[in-house]
Amino acid sequence: MHDASSGLSNPVRAAHVRLNEIIGMLHASREQVRAAVEGLGDRLRSFERSGVVDPERLASLRAESRALQTNAEAIQASQEMARNLEDQLAPLLASDDPDLELFAALEARVQRLHDLARTSSVRRDLHEAIMQ
Fold first, then answer.
1. Which of the ends of the chain has fewer CB neighbours closer than 10 A, N or C?
2. Does the record's keyword annotation contain Coiled coil (predicted)?
3. pTM of the full predicted structure?
């Protein structure tokens, strides 16, 4: 006969695996934003060296810089949320009698973070496609 904790064990592990996938997605996103910031810096330096006065191009580069900064901040906040969730899931993984209500709340937060990470990834992919 299975007790509640053995029935919950697999969903807790599944939530932990999903959280690790999210952490991986966020790390990849952060690296892509870092590379985009470096590329933008190169374009800005090239623009400055060209000596061409193009207010529209400068405004476009500044807007892109602000968007990248916003993206970087969102990724950092999501990474902090993921670390917090990981810390909260750890005791549930180790428990023989996990708190079902806490697990349900954490599972919902993991799902929201997953959706947010995917949405951020889609926005970044669209931005990259537009910039090419």
1. N
2. yes
3. 0.71
